[in-house]
Design a protein that fits this description.
The chain is an all-alpha fold and 79 residues long. It is built from 3 helices and no strands.
């Protein structure tokens, strides 16, 4: 494991189910977080204010991880 070599590993558990009928039919599928990471939501899936806020937070966490090796983002809850 990476921790045995002195490194850190980070995980997340994505549970956001899109609002509306489309979201109910799809559920939370593998890769469902990717539109949030890149703020590229398909037109056929509904997006509400919660989705926009979640996308902003995920982009902050992922950007921090890419830049610093830690997902902890400034002004965001602790990882």
């Amino acid at each position: 494991m990476i921790s045995a070599q002195g490194g850190q590993g980070f995980v997340y558990y994505f549970t956001r189910n899109r609002p509306g009928t489309s979201g109910d039919e799809l559920g939370v599928y593998h890769g469902a977080e990717l539109p949030y990471v890149f703020a590229q939501h398909d037109d056929w899936l509904p997006v509400d204010d919660a989705d926009s806020a979640l996308s902003s937070a995920i982009m902050d966490y992922w950007s921090s991880f890419a830049k610093n090796g830690s997902p902890q983002a400034t002004k965001r809850p602790g990882w």
